[in-house]
């Protein structure tokens, strides 16, 4: 929220205002307002040092887009109709410093319309032709931002822009906020007067909801050829779980663009928090090399779940570009039924030989630098990989350095077979109060672990993160 109501102008209230020439005759109508977006502001954006911070985040309103007809009578009289080829309307881009009374009943320009730059804008819908005459980084607000989705990085959600708030800052008019509240939509549909009456009728329950522009991230990467110079830094600095929630509310091109802007590790963390169908949609749209880099950073079980739901050719293409070790782990997991322990487990676990000492084990842990969830417990296997013991990290730390693992490990290991159902795994974890349970093959070989959070995802909250069934 932001307190900018005093002196603020609604963009919707500017659209359609009459434009007067120096003699007071109507020469056209305001159709849009252009702003310099994404760090493309000129030196005029920094009139003084104290305004530097403001100039960096609140885009300067540069020009108005006017649809010019032929000169007519003063504004108090009726506007003459447009007819005949010689009276065909013309588009003009007029600098804001050549306009008087912005926000008033009518706008008066300083000089004849022929003094201002012509622009080529179609009278009909569609993106073709929109943008001719604009400078790099200059964007038409009504055309490309009004009614679009943006990300409120402070509220960590996707919202729809119902109106835009402009306000004088440092002697210039700037875009200061997006209005996403219901009153702004009512005002556009019914007009300011009727919207005001409705507001009084509902006794203040129709409140304006503003998102300051320094909390806004635009989602469009390309606006009809006008490429925005937006870094999405604020969005990309959010927690991966917050980014994942935002992805849920977006369309595939926007999701893909956001994930594509993240480094592989951060993208992997975000996708692991995302809904399965979102994971698949994004990976399907990414370039295979980028998708492979991300999947290499994901846990093998999450990577396998995502790949199992993709088109076979696409999945195989991505797997072929992954590092051999990561690809081998994922292929191994793809063999298992998704409704069993084999389909739920991760192969990211640590197993040691029983003859290692405590000191040797700690040094090995430092070398491997495993993820936190993989060292809830340390597993002990024989030469054939058969699970023969387990110990906690605490047991390891409090033991003497020269002690061998065989002396401190618990030999009666609680485990589940690779064919165990999700409910069976949950029952074991709950009964023995475990943070993770090892998964073994029919011959006792350790093949993975299932962590408590994975069980929670698929059993306790199925609507939220239910694992997908793999296609046959």
Explain how this protein is built.
The chain has 472 residues and is an alpha+beta fold. The protein is built from 21 helices and 23 strands. The strands form six sheets. Strands 2, 3, 4, 5, 6, 7, 8 and 9 form an eight-stranded mixed beta sheet that branches. It has a four-stranded antiparallel beta sheet with strand order 1-12-13-14. The chain has a three-stranded antiparallel beta sheet with strand order 11-10-15. A hairpin with a 4-residue loop joins β10 and β11 (157-160). The longest helix has 11 residues, at 324-334.
Rg calc: 31 Å
DSSP, total strands: 23
The name of the CATH superfamily of the largest domain reads PRC-barrel domain
Q: Tell me which CATH architecture of the largest domain applies here.
A: Roll
- The structural domain count equals 4
Sheet of most strands: 8 strands, mixed
Beta-strand level of the residues, as a percent range? 15-25%
Shape: elongated
CATH fold field value of the largest domain: SH3 type barrels
Q: Unreliable runs, pLDDT <50, ≥5 residues?
A: 1-6, 39-53, 71-75, 77-87, 124-128, 224-231, 462-472
Alpha-carbon distance between the two ends: 50 Å
- Overall helicity: 25-40%
Average pLDDT confidence is 80
CATH first level of the largest domain:
Mainly Beta
- Work out the oligomeric state of the chains in this entry: single chain
Layout of helices and strands:
Blueprint: E1 9-10, H1 11-14, E2 18-20, E3 26-36, H2 52-57, E4 60-68, E5 90-95, E6 99-100, E7 107-109, E8 117-119, E9 138-140, H3 141-144, E10 149-152, E11 157-160, E12 163-169, E13 172-179, H4 182-190, H5 192-201, E14 210-212, E15 216-218, E16 222-223, E17 226-227, H6 233-236, H7 240-248, H8 252-261, H9 264-273, H10 276-285, H11 288-297, H12 300-308, H13 312-321, H14 324-334, H15 341-344, E18 351-353, H16 358-368, E19 377-381, E20 387-392, H17 393-398, H18 405-408, E21 416-417, H19 422-432, E22 436-440, E23 446-451, H20 452-460, H21 462-465
Parallel strand pairs: 2-7, 18-19, 21-22
Antiparallel strand pairs: 1-12, 2-3, 3-4, 3-9, 4-5, 5-8, 6-7, 10-11, 10-15, 12-13, 13-14, 16-17, 19-20, 22-23
């Amino acid at each position: 929220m932001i307190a900018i109501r005093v002196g603020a102008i609604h963009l919707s209230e500017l659209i359609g205002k009459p434009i007067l020439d120096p003699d007071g005759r109507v020469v056209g109508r305001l159709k849009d307002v252009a702003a310099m977006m994404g760090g493309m502001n000129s030196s005029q954006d920094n009139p003084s040092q104290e305004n530097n911070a403001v100039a960096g985040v609140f885009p300067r309103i540069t020009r108005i887009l006017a649809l010019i007809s032929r000169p007519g009578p003063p504004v108090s009289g009726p506007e003459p109709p447009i007819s005949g080829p010689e009276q065909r309307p013309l588009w003009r881009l007029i600098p804001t410093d050549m306009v008087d009374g912005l926000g008033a009943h009518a706008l008066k320009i300083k000089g004849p319309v022929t003094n201002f730059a012509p622009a080529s804008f179609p009278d009909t819908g569609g993106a073709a032709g929109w943008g001719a005459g604009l400078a790099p980084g200059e964007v038409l607000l009504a055309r490309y931002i009004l009614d679009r989705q943006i990300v409120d990085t402070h509220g960590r959600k996707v919202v729809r822009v119902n109106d835009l708030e402009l306000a004088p800052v440092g002697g210039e008019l700037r875009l200061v906020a997006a209005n996403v509240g219901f009153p702004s939509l009512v005002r556009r549909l019914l007009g300011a007067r009727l919207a005001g009456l409705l507001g009084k009728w509902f006794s203040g329950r129709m409140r304006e909801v503003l998102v300051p522009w320094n909390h806004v991230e635009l989602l469009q990467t390309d606006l009809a050829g006008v490429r925005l110079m937006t870094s999405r830094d604020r969005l990309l600095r959010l927690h991966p779980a917050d980014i994942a929630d935002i992805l849920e509310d977006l369309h595939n091109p926007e999701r893909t663009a956001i994930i594509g802007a993240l480094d592989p590790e951060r993208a992997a963390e975000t996708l692991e928090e995302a809904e399965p169908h979102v994971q698949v949609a994004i990976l399907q749209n990414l370039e295979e090399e980028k998708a492979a880099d991300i999947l290499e950073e994901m846990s093998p079980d999450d990577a396998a779940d995502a790949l199992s739901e993709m088109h076979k050719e696409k999945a195989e293409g991505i797997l072929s570009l992954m590092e051999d070790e990561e690809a081998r782990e994922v292929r191994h997991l793809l063999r298992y039924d998704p409704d069993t322990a084999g389909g739920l487990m991760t192969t990211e676990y640590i197993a040691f030989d029983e003859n290692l000492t405590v000191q040797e084990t700690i040094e090995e842990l430092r070398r491997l630098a495993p993820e936190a969830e993989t060292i809830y417990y340390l597993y002990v296997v024989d030469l054939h990989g058969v699970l023969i013991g387990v110990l906690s990290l605490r047991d390891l730390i409090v033991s003497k350095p020269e002690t061998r693992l065989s002396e401190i490990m618990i030999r009666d290991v609680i485990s589940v077979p690779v064919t165990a159902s999700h409910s069976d795994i949950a029952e074991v974890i709950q009964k023995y109060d475990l943070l993770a349970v090892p998964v073994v093959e029919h011959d006792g070989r350790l093949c993975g672990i299932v962590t408590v959070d994975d069980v929670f995802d698929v059993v306790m909250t199925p609507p939220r993160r239910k694992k997908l069934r793999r296609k046959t």
